[in-house]
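protein under study:
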Amino acid sequence: MTVHSMRLHTLGEKFRSVAIIGSTAAGLCFTALLSSPVRAAALPQGLIVSPAIEQLAVASGQQQVTFSSTVTNNTASAVTLSLSAQDFSSLGVRSGSLNFVSGRSPDNSHGLAAWMDVGAIHLMLAPGSSQTVPITVAHTDRLAPGGHYAALLFKVAAPAGAPGNRITANEVVSTLVFLTASGHEVNAVHLESIGQRPWATQIPSSVDIVFKNTGNTQTAPRGLVTVFGPAHREVARGAINTDSGLVLPGTSRVFSVPLRLERFFSLPGPYTMLVSYHADGVDNVTVYKKTILLVKVPLLIGLSVLLLAGVVWLIRRTEPFKKYILNR
């Protein structure tokens, strides 16, 4: 199977209920007069699909599971949509883009597209109309225990051939489908690296952490980053993955963790960064420890000047230096 990369317009990582393709609304419109009523927020323009993420679970021996996805045409023109299911192999290290796998092969150990029955292949939506599509995931009793995933794609079909040159957009919205088959599923993450140098001039305001999914089920890393200073006083902390971003089995992903400073003034010296983490739904917590040397530049310059002045003073006090001055 070949793998190709495609940027999918979805808000899946934040578990929101709506994904939007096309231009977004300008925002809320408020009247200038207090006596006038407040206008409602403008509806987002383009194609809208809900939910953006569908999470399913099947028990051992369960043969099928169903869900629905609703697509809305919030444009001024009628559109024709083609429906398909396609597997993907990763969620992108930083961008959240998807790497799609061509074909619908049951040999893909975590793929789900081959098991999805999308029903109608084409839809026609008038302006402002919506349609709900029922989807069946069949033969789930044959799925290996663990995580399986695919994207349900709603793609705008190109208009019939028209004379002259035309510019068309490859517009796609999707519902990401994550299914967990019970049995011997394993939720586990491992901290691969942490983007923090062993020294710093100030307490870091954020830290990038790379987690790898070492289990067989898609999962979200959870945990806390805490920075301790001299006398084991807490100086900063931040929660890991507040947006509930997923990591797929066998893949790695970077999570940026903002740190809230507890103290505005920090003395130079060694500091300790503790990363306590675990996979979502797992109670066992792993702790990673990193030592950071906090260096204050003005203080370092001042100490260097004092040291240099001390060396010069000692040299001037030596006997060879005195003889050198007298001989001149």
Notes: The longest strand covers residues 64-74. The mean pLDDT is 79. The CA atoms of residues 195 and 208 lie 5 Å apart. The radius of gyration is 29 Å.
